UniProtKB/TrEMBL annotation:
PROSITE patterns: SIN. It comes from Bacillus spongiae. This is Anti-repressor SinI family protein. Residues 1-35 form the Sin domain.
Length: 51
């Protein structure tokens, strides 16, 4: 996956979260709590959180 595609996916994911009522602070806290970095795959973390 190319970085530009990943960035677009992140943007879409964040936009969807915001549309569903999740705040920017909640997104930021989630990322800090789960220590998400560019080198980690977030998909399993998101799947578990949304379940």
């Amino acid at each position: 996956m190319v970085k530009a595609e990943l960035d677009l996916e992140w943007l879409q994911l964040v936009q969807e979260a915001l549309e569903k009522g999740i705040t920017k602070t909640e997104i930021r806290d989630f990322l800090k709590t789960h220590k998400i970095s560019q080198n980690k795959n977030i998909e399993p973390v998101i799947s578990k959180s949304l379940a």
